[in-house]
Amino acid sequence: MEKTPEQITVIDADGLILGRMATYVAKRLLNGEEIAIVNAEKAILSGRKSVKLADTKEFLKVGAPMRGPFHYRRPDRLVRRTVRGMLPRRKPKGKQAFKRLRVYVGIPDDLKGRSAETLSKAQGKKLTCPHSTVGELAREIGWNPEA
Q: Please, what is the average pLDDT of the chain?
C-alpha cells in the first residue's frame, strides 16, 4: 500500500552527521514510519577527508563488477547503504523497513514546499574535528553531479 506524500516524514540531511542520522532513521523505519531523506549530499562525515578517501578507495578494489559487492558513488546511494547497515536487512522486518526509505540528492519536485524536519541529536554544529560532506567524498570517488 503506497502512502500519500503527506504521510511520508521528510528529513533534511543538511548539516547532520551521517552515522548519527542513520541510527535515528533506522530505528524509525523499524517502527513503521516511511521516511524520505533530502539533501543527502550535504550530510557530514567526521574525520580527516584524506583518511576517509583512502579507506573508500581501498574498499573500491574489493570484489568484481558483475558479482559484487557493488560500490555506489552517488551520495544518495551512500546514505542509503549506511542506513541499510543499521537494519536487520536479512529478516522480514528489516527488508520491509528498508523498502520504506527514500533518499534524494537535493529536493525532488514532489517534496518541495513540505516542511522538512532535522534531527537535533545528529547536528554537526559542535563538531570540532576535521570533517567533509558526503558530496565531496562522492565527487572524489567518481560521482559526476552533472551527468
A: 93
